[in-house]
Amino acid sequence: MMMRNFLPFILLFFVACDFQGNTPTRNLDLKDKIDDIFSKQDLKGTILVYDAKQKVYYSNDFGLAEKGYLPASTFKIANSIIAFESDVLKDENTVMKWDGQKRALPSWEKDMNVREAFQASCLPCYQEVAKNIGAKRMKTYLNKLHYNNMEVSESTISDFWIKGNSHITPFEQIDFMQRLYTKKLPILNTTYDKMLHIFEKEKTSTYTYYGKSGWSENNSVNNGWFVGFVVKNTQAYYFALNAEPIDQNNTSKFTEGRELATREVLKLLQIL
Q1: Which CATH homologous superfamily contains domain 24-268?
Q2: Cα–Cα distance for residue pair 244/118, rounded to 1 Å
Q3: Verdict on whether the full-model pTM lies above 0.70
Q4: How far is Cα 230 from Cα 49, in angstroms, rounded to an integer?
Q5: Rounded to 5 degrees, what are φ and ψ at 186?
Q6: Closest among 74, 221, 258, 68 to 161, alpha carbons compared
Q7: Residue 259's closest CA among 240, 232, 237?
Q8: pLDDT tens figures, 67-106
């Protein structure tokens, strides 16, 4: 009788030890330097960088990294995956036709293939993609991908990622990208290949750099992302920056500043 009661304790002990041994550590040592990098780009917020091999997270603010924000155009990552999986988009060379209507940015006023639309963050292109996927199918795929906390309905299908209550945290962004790169998502191998092609921003002799920006304005608050990963010597490093302009009325540096700050942090960590 005593042995039966003792066995659960033994099992629990070993499970706890294994869990603790595999729990990533958190490093705040570079907080002041990262905050300074943000300040030079007129930003306030957080960046989370994950060294998958060493199982170490680096950040200037882990509290903010656990808060949820609208995914904005970083949702184009999931949106593209779902479009490829559902055959709404055939491949990265599929042309998204411009309807001739005035768009928010002149750079969007042309036909673009999927890679071009992804890199240019063409909102109307991907609004059309989302509508072609449809709310029911979108929710089914989001559940399958464990891309949680998206509020999708027929009435919000074209904008749920840029307004409303949908949210994702920097930790969740990194988890999703890690599952993408390590092929832990329940998707076709061909979809993985297509995603890496449209996601890639830079390839050098020492590393390949993938990145996606995002910008939402909700209740007059500008919030932005820059997320992605770097593959260097077969080792992957994942990052998710979320920030706001220090002055909400001055967004002059916001477009470029998020990626510039990210790259400076990656250089600080000797990843780039």
Answers
A1: DD-peptidase/beta-lactamase superfamily (3.40.710.10)
A2: 22
A3: yes
A4: 10
A5: -80, 65
A6: 74
A7: 240
A8: 999 999 999 999 999 999 999 999 999 999 999 999 999 9
